[in-house]
Automatic annotation (TrEMBL):
This is Segregation and condensation protein A. Keywords: Chromosome partition. It comes from Candidatus Malacoplasma girerdii. One of its GO terms (biological process) is chromosome segregation. Coiled coil: none annotated. InterPro entries: ScpA (IPR003768).
Amino acid sequence: MGANFNLRLKDFEGPLDLIDTLVREKKLDIMNLDVAAVAQQYLGFVRNQINTISIDEAAEYLEMAIYLIALKSKKAIPLENNISNENSFEYERDKLVQRIIEYRKYKAVADFLTTKKENRIHQYAKFSNDVEDFRPENLSVEKLPEKIDLQKLWDALNSAFIKYRSSLFAKAKIFVQELSVNKIEDDLWDYLSTNKIKQITFSEYFATLDEMEISQQYLVTLFLAILDLVKYGKISIEQNENLEIVINNNELIKEIK
């Protein structure tokens, strides 16, 4: 085996970890694995270091050694034509390669989670502040128009969350954006004015937006923008029989009348 490896078995997490290390250190092609070379390196390594571990651990390494010997023998001794392909050398080798690849994936995830754990150790949780401590004394709270039921508004917003969570929010995407109530308010009003829309539901307007812009934060900000337009009298809102928010363009309605 030479002096290429100066390691001990206790440094490995099992037989597959040792095989994976041998493949990487020898820079072997994993997709066209030289089983004979791996078996020779593995057996030599285990033979030299087997006395450094417990009997239980040794059993796992020896079981893999037997498997590699059997696999090496299949390559040296061709099978007869009537033998199933599932017992062929290529089939067994591919199974070993697949185990190594899967092991690498699990190890990569484990290393990632370990790093996250170590980083988390250095982080400290902070209790949230009471917002009342930061509330200005002269802050005025504007009430919604009497005809608007706050509970119904909440039900409508929650209904929108449920509707779009499974389709838009669940898609794998990372999109960082700065949201402004004024900007989204202007976009909504421009859409209503430019297209001469008298009435539109919340979901119908949502469907016209760029999918990459849609997020939970956008949905909440849009909801606040709608309330702002209601406050200024540009629009009015109600609920239909499907509990959807219906947006009425007050200025266009006045023109028609």
